[in-house]
Amino acid sequence: MSASSESMPTLSSRTASPPSAARAPLLSWLGVAPFLIFALLFLILPTGMLMVGAFQDAQGHFTLNNIVRLFDDNILGAYQISLQISAASAILGTLLGLLLALAAIRGGLPAWIRPTLTTFSGVASNFAGIPLAFAFLSTLGRMGLVTMLLRKYLDFDLYASGFSILSFAGLTLTYLYFQVPLMVLIIAPAVEGLKDEWREACESLGGSGLAYWRHIALPVLWPSLVGAALLLFANAFGAVATAYALTGSSLNIVTILLYAQIHGDVLHDQNLGYALALGMVLITGSANAGYIWLRKRSQREAA
């Protein structure tokens, strides 16, 4: 009897949770509360408002007319050009960013190259909007610095050759300024994961450099490459400030059309703008979902 009575306090002391352990979840929720509030105010509620407004008319009545109008030739053309620009900048950004990351991390360059490239990439990947548009107009506009230097010293008229900073090629080139650095930041951990032992094993078995990349490196990198390309695609597809400041209304892309529908004086149709935004959310959301899935797959393969 005495033995059991002695063991009971010991058992209860083991099962009882200390006060600090009970307060830990509460403190954790308080720590993440700013993020949850931010996501609610600037992501969840605006997306819900878009979904509701896309199915309403100006009087607030339910309608499918806004969704039907998305299939008009003008709107479909805007989506098509936006998809093409986003795909072009994503593909080129993926290739150039991969080459830069490989050269800086595994190319045998001086040690200071890598931190310098990483620092620049962190800054350049966030440099967009009106400042970026002004920088490219000052550099590659009709009276831009590079344009004038080519005309003066090489007798080459850049705009006479068919190039224009206000065109498809000009906007794609501008997007590459932040797409390539973003790719460097994304793909750098995957490039670091390539082990030297894999190349040495390939060479010891008589494999060439091409065989190493074809059978070892690229199969390891491809989930990260495709996922990064999807993220770059979504990043370019949702860009509005750079395109609007650079081209104005001269290029019919969906972000500029959306801006005209919500804030314009002539094409003002707020609910159609909501429908345009909803279509963009679905496209960028699908791209981001693909990126998340591929990133998890690459992490499992690396583990």
Keywords summarizing the entry:
303 residues, mainly alpha, 13 helices, 0% strand, globular, disordered N terminus, cell membrane, membrane
- C-alpha Rg (nearest Å): 27 Å
Count the strands? 0
Shape: globular
N-to-C CA distance? 54 Å
What amount of the residues lies in strands? Answer: under 5%
Helix content: over 70%
Characterize the quaternary organization of these chains: single chain
Structural category is mainly alpha
Give the mean pLDDT.
Answer: 87
What is the string of helix and strand elements?
A: HHHHHHHHHHHHH
Low-confidence stretches: 1-9
> Can you count the helices?
13
| Main beta sheet strand tally, sense and closure | none
Region (Disordered): 1-20
Family: Belongs to the binding-protein-dependent transport system permease family. CysTW subfamily.
Keywords: Cell membrane, Membrane, Transmembrane, Transmembrane helix, Transport
Organism: Chromobacterium amazonense
Descriptive report:
The protein is built from 13 helices and no strands. Helix 8 crosses helix 10. The chain is globular and about 75 Å long. It is an all-alpha fold and 303 residues long. Residues 1-9 have low confidence and may be disordered. It has helices at residues 2-15, 19-53, 65-69, 73-106, 113-124, 130-140, 145-153, 168-192, 196-204, 209-237, 241-247, 254-263, 270-302.
